[in-house]
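Box 4.2: Ligand-aware structure prediction
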Amino acid sequence: MKDIKSMTLAELTQEFTTDLGEPKFRAGQVYAWLHRGARSFDEMTNLSKPLREKLAQRYTLPFPTVARRLESQKDGTIKYLWRLTDGNCVESVLMRYHHGNTVCISSEVGCPMGCAFCASTLGGLVRRLTPAEMLDQVLFTQLDSGLPISNIVLMGIGEPLDNYDTVLRFLQLVNSPEGMNIGMRHISLSTCGLVDRIDRLAEENLQLTLSVSLHAPTDEVRSRIMPVNKKYPVDTLLAACRRYFEKTGRRISFEYAMIRDVNDTPEMAQLLMKKLRGIAAHVNLIPLNEVAESPLKPSLPETVRAFQQTLEQHGIPATVRRTLGSDINASCGQLRRKFERENGRM
Ligand code: SAH
Protein backbone atom coordinates (compact mmCIF):
# COMPACT_ATOMS: atom_id res chain seq x y z
CA MET A 1 0.00 0.00 0.00
CA LYS A 2 1.16 3.50 -0.81
CA ASP A 3 1.90 6.11 1.83
CA ILE A 4 -0.56 8.80 0.77
CA LYS A 5 1.09 11.75 2.54
CA SER A 6 4.36 11.21 0.65
CA MET A 7 2.54 11.84 -2.64
CA THR A 8 2.49 15.19 -4.40
CA LEU A 9 -0.81 16.82 -5.34
CA ALA A 10 -0.08 16.08 -9.01
CA GLU A 11 0.42 12.36 -8.27
CA LEU A 12 -2.68 12.21 -6.12
CA THR A 13 -4.73 13.95 -8.78
CA GLN A 14 -3.43 11.52 -11.38
CA GLU A 15 -4.45 8.47 -9.32
CA PHE A 16 -7.81 9.92 -8.31
CA THR A 17 -8.84 10.79 -11.83
CA THR A 18 -7.63 7.57 -13.47
CA ASP A 19 -7.62 4.62 -11.01
CA LEU A 20 -10.34 5.85 -8.66
CA GLY A 21 -12.56 7.61 -11.18
CA GLU A 22 -12.94 10.63 -8.92
CA PRO A 23 -13.05 14.26 -10.01
CA LYS A 24 -9.89 16.32 -9.74
CA PHE A 25 -11.12 18.49 -6.85
CA ARG A 26 -11.43 15.42 -4.60
CA ALA A 27 -7.67 14.96 -4.72
CA GLY A 28 -7.34 18.61 -3.67
CA GLN A 29 -9.68 18.04 -0.74
CA VAL A 30 -7.74 15.02 0.46
CA TYR A 31 -4.40 16.79 0.02
CA ALA A 32 -5.69 19.69 2.12
CA TRP A 33 -6.76 17.33 4.91
CA LEU A 34 -3.41 15.56 4.89
CA HIS A 35 -1.48 18.81 5.08
CA ARG A 36 -3.62 20.01 7.97
CA GLY A 37 -2.58 16.92 9.93
CA ALA A 38 -5.58 14.56 9.54
CA ARG A 39 -4.83 11.28 11.29
CA SER A 40 -7.39 9.13 9.50
CA PHE A 41 -9.55 9.11 6.40
CA ASP A 42 -12.61 9.16 8.65
CA GLU A 43 -11.73 12.71 9.68
CA MET A 44 -12.22 13.80 6.08
CA THR A 45 -15.87 14.63 6.56
CA ASN A 46 -16.44 16.25 3.18
CA LEU A 47 -15.85 12.88 1.50
CA SER A 48 -18.49 10.17 1.22
CA LYS A 49 -18.18 7.17 3.51
CA PRO A 50 -17.61 4.73 0.61
CA LEU A 51 -14.79 6.90 -0.72
CA ARG A 52 -13.17 7.13 2.72
CA GLU A 53 -13.32 3.34 2.96
CA LYS A 54 -11.86 2.94 -0.49
CA LEU A 55 -8.97 5.25 0.39
CA ALA A 56 -8.28 3.40 3.63
CA GLN A 57 -8.01 0.14 1.68
CA ARG A 58 -5.68 1.62 -0.87
CA TYR A 59 -3.38 3.92 1.11
CA THR A 60 -1.60 4.02 4.43
CA LEU A 61 -1.75 7.16 6.54
CA PRO A 62 0.88 6.87 9.28
CA PHE A 63 1.49 9.69 11.76
CA PRO A 64 3.93 10.14 14.65
CA THR A 65 3.07 10.39 18.33
CA VAL A 66 4.80 12.46 20.99
CA ALA A 67 7.15 10.19 22.96
CA ARG A 68 8.67 13.08 24.92
CA ARG A 69 8.18 16.83 24.96
CA LEU A 70 10.61 19.11 26.77
CA GLU A 71 10.14 22.86 27.05
CA SER A 72 12.96 25.20 27.98
CA GLN A 73 12.17 27.44 30.93
CA LYS A 74 14.74 29.91 29.63
CA ASP A 75 13.69 30.65 26.08
CA GLY A 76 10.58 28.62 25.22
CA THR A 77 12.43 26.21 22.95
CA ILE A 78 10.45 22.97 22.67
CA LYS A 79 12.06 19.66 21.90
CA TYR A 80 9.95 16.82 20.56
CA LEU A 81 10.86 13.18 20.47
CA TRP A 82 8.53 11.56 17.94
CA ARG A 83 7.71 7.90 17.90
CA LEU A 84 7.25 6.64 14.36
CA THR A 85 4.89 3.80 13.47
CA ASP A 86 7.70 1.21 13.51
CA GLY A 87 8.75 2.23 17.03
CA ASN A 88 11.83 4.21 15.97
CA CYS A 89 12.22 7.72 17.32
CA VAL A 90 13.47 11.02 15.86
CA GLU A 91 13.81 14.51 17.29
CA SER A 92 12.63 17.96 16.22
CA VAL A 93 13.31 21.25 17.95
CA LEU A 94 11.07 24.32 17.82
CA MET A 95 13.01 27.55 18.32
CA ARG A 96 11.32 30.90 18.77
CA TYR A 97 13.32 33.56 16.97
CA HIS A 98 12.34 37.17 16.32
CA HIS A 99 12.12 36.41 12.62
CA GLY A 100 9.66 33.59 13.23
CA ASN A 101 9.19 30.14 14.68
CA THR A 102 11.76 27.75 13.29
CA VAL A 103 11.63 23.98 13.45
CA CYS A 104 14.76 21.89 13.16
CA ILE A 105 13.90 18.47 11.76
CA SER A 106 15.56 15.08 11.29
CA SER A 107 16.05 13.33 7.96
CA GLU A 108 17.17 9.88 9.14
CA VAL A 109 16.89 7.58 12.16
CA GLY A 110 20.53 7.72 13.26
CA CYS A 111 23.23 8.75 10.80
CA PRO A 112 25.90 6.93 8.75
CA MET A 113 28.44 9.77 8.66
CA GLY A 114 30.38 9.11 11.88
CA CYS A 115 31.37 12.66 12.94
CA ALA A 116 33.37 12.43 16.18
CA PHE A 117 31.50 15.17 18.04
CA CYS A 118 27.93 14.21 17.12
CA ALA A 119 25.45 12.23 19.22
CA SER A 120 23.22 11.35 16.26
CA THR A 121 25.73 9.05 14.62
CA LEU A 122 26.78 7.01 17.66
CA GLY A 123 24.54 4.07 16.80
CA GLY A 124 25.02 4.39 13.03
CA LEU A 125 22.18 4.61 10.54
CA VAL A 126 19.02 2.72 11.45
CA ARG A 127 16.95 3.79 8.45
CA ARG A 128 16.09 6.76 6.30
CA LEU A 129 12.85 8.67 6.85
CA THR A 130 10.02 8.89 4.33
CA PRO A 131 8.90 12.24 2.87
CA ALA A 132 5.76 12.11 5.02
CA GLU A 133 7.81 11.45 8.17
CA MET A 134 9.78 14.60 7.45
CA LEU A 135 6.67 16.63 6.69
CA ASP A 136 4.95 15.33 9.84
CA GLN A 137 7.68 16.80 12.02
CA VAL A 138 6.79 20.27 10.75
CA LEU A 139 3.06 19.65 10.70
CA PHE A 140 2.70 18.08 14.13
CA THR A 141 5.16 20.45 15.80
CA GLN A 142 2.89 23.26 14.62
CA LEU A 143 -0.28 21.45 15.68
CA ASP A 144 1.00 20.36 19.08
CA SER A 145 2.59 23.68 20.02
CA GLY A 146 -0.10 25.88 18.51
CA LEU A 147 2.71 28.06 17.13
CA PRO A 148 2.75 28.81 13.40
CA ILE A 149 5.98 27.60 11.80
CA SER A 150 7.56 29.93 9.27
CA ASN A 151 11.08 28.52 8.95
CA ILE A 152 12.62 25.07 8.66
CA VAL A 153 16.18 23.89 9.15
CA LEU A 154 17.27 20.41 8.12
CA MET A 155 19.82 20.13 10.91
CA GLY A 156 18.38 17.41 13.09
CA ILE A 157 19.35 13.74 13.16
CA GLY A 158 20.75 12.36 9.90
CA GLU A 159 22.47 13.57 6.75
CA PRO A 160 19.84 15.10 4.44
CA LEU A 161 21.86 14.58 1.27
CA ASP A 162 22.25 10.87 2.14
CA ASN A 163 18.44 10.71 1.83
CA TYR A 164 18.42 12.87 -1.27
CA ASP A 165 15.26 11.89 -3.18
CA THR A 166 13.19 11.89 -0.01
CA VAL A 167 14.46 15.30 1.03
CA LEU A 168 13.66 16.74 -2.38
CA ARG A 169 10.18 15.35 -2.27
CA PHE A 170 9.72 16.68 1.26
CA LEU A 171 10.75 20.15 0.06
CA GLN A 172 8.22 19.95 -2.73
CA LEU A 173 5.47 18.96 -0.27
CA VAL A 174 6.17 21.54 2.42
CA ASN A 175 6.63 24.26 -0.20
CA SER A 176 3.37 23.54 -2.03
CA PRO A 177 0.82 26.38 -2.01
CA GLU A 178 -1.96 23.85 -1.29
CA GLY A 179 0.02 22.52 1.68
CA MET A 180 2.05 24.35 4.33
CA ASN A 181 3.35 26.76 1.71
CA ILE A 182 6.70 27.42 3.41
CA GLY A 183 8.94 29.35 1.04
CA MET A 184 12.29 27.92 -0.04
CA ARG A 185 14.01 31.04 1.24
CA HIS A 186 12.76 30.10 4.69
CA ILE A 187 14.40 26.68 4.52
CA SER A 188 18.02 25.73 5.30
CA LEU A 189 19.63 22.41 4.52
CA SER A 190 22.79 21.37 6.34
CA THR A 191 25.24 18.83 4.98
CA CYS A 192 28.52 17.32 6.17
CA GLY A 193 29.79 17.78 2.61
CA LEU A 194 28.68 15.10 0.15
CA VAL A 195 30.19 16.77 -2.91
CA ASP A 196 28.41 14.77 -5.64
CA ARG A 197 25.07 15.57 -4.01
CA ILE A 198 25.91 19.25 -3.58
CA ASP A 199 26.48 19.37 -7.34
CA ARG A 200 23.18 17.62 -7.92
CA LEU A 201 21.40 20.03 -5.60
CA ALA A 202 22.91 22.99 -7.46
CA GLU A 203 21.21 21.71 -10.61
CA GLU A 204 17.81 21.85 -8.88
CA ASN A 205 18.41 25.58 -8.50
CA LEU A 206 16.35 25.95 -5.33
CA GLN A 207 16.27 29.17 -3.35
CA LEU A 208 17.01 27.43 -0.05
CA THR A 209 20.08 28.15 2.08
CA LEU A 210 22.81 25.55 1.93
CA SER A 211 24.75 25.12 5.17
CA VAL A 212 28.00 23.23 5.01
CA SER A 213 29.41 21.69 8.18
CA LEU A 214 33.04 22.59 7.69
CA HIS A 215 34.41 22.52 11.25
CA ALA A 216 38.08 22.66 10.16
CA PRO A 217 40.12 24.29 7.38
CA THR A 218 42.73 21.53 6.99
CA ASP A 219 42.40 17.91 5.89
CA GLU A 220 44.50 16.81 8.83
CA VAL A 221 42.05 18.15 11.43
CA ARG A 222 38.87 17.69 9.43
CA SER A 223 39.55 14.02 8.65
CA ARG A 224 40.17 13.43 12.33
CA ILE A 225 36.70 14.67 13.33
CA MET A 226 34.73 14.01 10.12
CA PRO A 227 35.36 10.71 8.26
CA VAL A 228 33.54 12.08 5.18
CA ASN A 229 36.59 14.31 4.62
CA LYS A 230 38.62 11.29 3.50
CA LYS A 231 36.31 10.93 0.53
CA TYR A 232 35.70 14.63 -0.09
CA PRO A 233 38.65 16.69 1.20
CA VAL A 234 38.42 20.38 2.10
CA ASP A 235 39.52 21.80 -1.27
CA THR A 236 37.19 19.46 -3.19
CA LEU A 237 34.33 20.51 -0.93
CA LEU A 238 35.06 24.22 -1.22
CA ALA A 239 35.28 23.92 -5.01
CA ALA A 240 31.78 22.42 -4.97
CA CYS A 241 30.64 25.33 -2.79
CA ARG A 242 31.97 27.78 -5.34
CA ARG A 243 30.13 25.93 -8.13
CA TYR A 244 26.98 25.93 -6.01
CA PHE A 245 27.13 29.69 -5.60
CA GLU A 246 27.83 30.26 -9.30
CA LYS A 247 24.84 28.14 -10.25
CA THR A 248 22.30 29.35 -7.67
CA GLY A 249 23.55 32.78 -6.60
CA ARG A 250 22.88 31.75 -3.01
CA ARG A 251 25.45 32.58 -0.36
CA ILE A 252 26.66 29.55 1.58
CA SER A 253 26.57 29.31 5.32
CA PHE A 254 29.46 27.40 6.93
CA GLU A 255 28.96 25.72 10.27
CA TYR A 256 31.98 25.63 12.53
CA ALA A 257 31.64 23.86 15.89
CA MET A 258 34.32 25.26 18.17
CA ILE A 259 36.18 22.40 19.83
CA ARG A 260 38.76 23.23 22.49
CA ASP A 261 42.36 22.85 21.30
CA VAL A 262 41.24 21.01 18.17
CA ASN A 263 40.03 23.61 15.67
CA ASP A 264 39.94 26.86 17.64
CA THR A 265 43.53 28.17 17.56
CA PRO A 266 44.54 31.50 15.95
CA GLU A 267 46.35 29.50 13.24
CA MET A 268 43.12 27.70 12.40
CA ALA A 269 41.32 31.05 12.10
CA GLN A 270 44.02 32.26 9.69
CA LEU A 271 43.82 29.09 7.61
CA LEU A 272 40.03 29.21 7.51
CA MET A 273 40.14 32.79 6.36
CA LYS A 274 42.47 31.91 3.51
CA LYS A 275 40.37 28.95 2.43
CA LEU A 276 37.17 30.97 2.36
CA ARG A 277 38.62 33.87 0.44
CA GLY A 278 36.56 34.53 -2.67
CA ILE A 279 33.59 32.48 -1.51
CA ALA A 280 30.32 34.25 -0.72
CA ALA A 281 30.22 32.83 2.74
CA HIS A 282 28.86 33.35 6.18
CA VAL A 283 30.41 31.50 9.10
CA ASN A 284 28.35 30.29 12.03
CA LEU A 285 30.50 29.60 15.05
CA ILE A 286 28.84 27.16 17.41
CA PRO A 287 30.40 26.39 20.77
CA LEU A 288 30.51 22.58 20.82
CA ASN A 289 27.67 20.93 22.67
CA GLU A 290 29.21 18.37 24.95
CA VAL A 291 28.22 14.80 24.21
CA ALA A 292 28.57 12.37 27.13
CA GLU A 293 30.22 9.67 25.01
CA SER A 294 32.90 11.98 23.57
CA PRO A 295 36.04 13.47 25.17
CA LEU A 296 35.78 16.65 23.03
CA LYS A 297 35.18 19.89 24.92
CA PRO A 298 33.72 23.26 23.84
CA SER A 299 36.08 26.18 23.26
CA LEU A 300 36.27 28.88 25.91
CA PRO A 301 34.05 31.93 25.25
CA GLU A 302 37.07 34.24 24.82
CA THR A 303 38.58 31.86 22.25
CA VAL A 304 35.33 31.89 20.30
CA ARG A 305 35.25 35.69 20.35
CA ALA A 306 38.87 35.99 19.20
CA PHE A 307 38.22 33.52 16.37
CA GLN A 308 35.19 35.49 15.28
CA GLN A 309 37.13 38.76 15.33
CA THR A 310 39.89 37.35 13.13
CA LEU A 311 37.34 36.32 10.52
CA GLU A 312 35.42 39.58 10.69
CA GLN A 313 38.58 41.67 10.43
CA HIS A 314 39.30 39.98 7.13
CA GLY A 315 35.87 40.56 5.72
CA ILE A 316 34.31 37.18 6.43
CA PRO A 317 30.97 37.62 8.19
CA ALA A 318 30.94 35.41 11.27
CA THR A 319 28.35 35.07 14.00
CA VAL A 320 28.40 33.13 17.22
CA ARG A 321 25.29 31.01 17.38
CA ARG A 322 23.14 31.77 20.39
CA THR A 323 22.56 28.61 22.37
CA LEU A 324 18.86 27.88 22.77
CA GLY A 325 17.34 25.24 24.97
CA SER A 326 20.56 24.44 26.81
CA ASP A 327 18.51 23.27 29.79
CA ILE A 328 16.71 20.61 27.73
CA ASN A 329 19.55 18.94 25.83
CA ALA A 330 18.22 20.62 22.73
CA SER A 331 21.02 19.66 20.37
CA CYS A 332 19.82 16.79 18.29
CA GLY A 333 20.58 13.15 18.86
CA GLN A 334 20.94 13.30 22.60
CA LEU A 335 17.32 12.89 23.62
CA ARG A 336 16.78 9.98 21.25
CA ARG A 337 19.79 8.14 22.70
CA LYS A 338 18.70 8.77 26.27
CA PHE A 339 15.18 7.56 25.54
CA GLU A 340 16.29 4.44 23.66
CA ARG A 341 18.74 3.55 26.43
CA GLU A 342 16.02 3.89 29.06
CA ASN A 343 13.82 1.67 26.97
CA GLY A 344 16.54 -0.88 26.38
CA ARG A 345 16.83 -0.36 22.63
CA MET A 346 20.48 0.72 22.57
N1 SAH B 1 24.25 15.86 8.75
C1 SAH B 1 24.07 17.25 8.56
C2 SAH B 1 22.97 17.87 9.40
C3 SAH B 1 22.82 17.45 10.83
S1 SAH B 1 23.86 18.12 12.06
C4 SAH B 1 25.38 17.99 8.75
O1 SAH B 1 26.36 17.35 9.07
O2 SAH B 1 25.42 19.19 8.50
C5 SAH B 1 23.56 19.83 12.20
C6 SAH B 1 24.79 20.59 12.64
O3 SAH B 1 25.14 20.34 14.00
C7 SAH B 1 26.03 20.23 11.83
O4 SAH B 1 26.75 21.37 11.51
C8 SAH B 1 26.79 19.36 12.81
O5 SAH B 1 28.13 19.26 12.47
C9 SAH B 1 26.52 20.08 14.10
N2 SAH B 1 26.77 19.30 15.32
C10 SAH B 1 26.65 17.99 15.52
N3 SAH B 1 26.99 17.66 16.77
C11 SAH B 1 27.33 18.81 17.39
C12 SAH B 1 27.78 19.14 18.70
N4 SAH B 1 27.95 18.20 19.61
N5 SAH B 1 28.04 20.43 18.97
C13 SAH B 1 27.87 21.39 18.05
N6 SAH B 1 27.43 21.15 16.81
C14 SAH B 1 27.19 19.88 16.47
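In the box above, the bound molecule is S-adenosyl-L-homocysteine. Residues 65-342 form a domain with the TIM Barrel fold (CATH 3.20.20.70).
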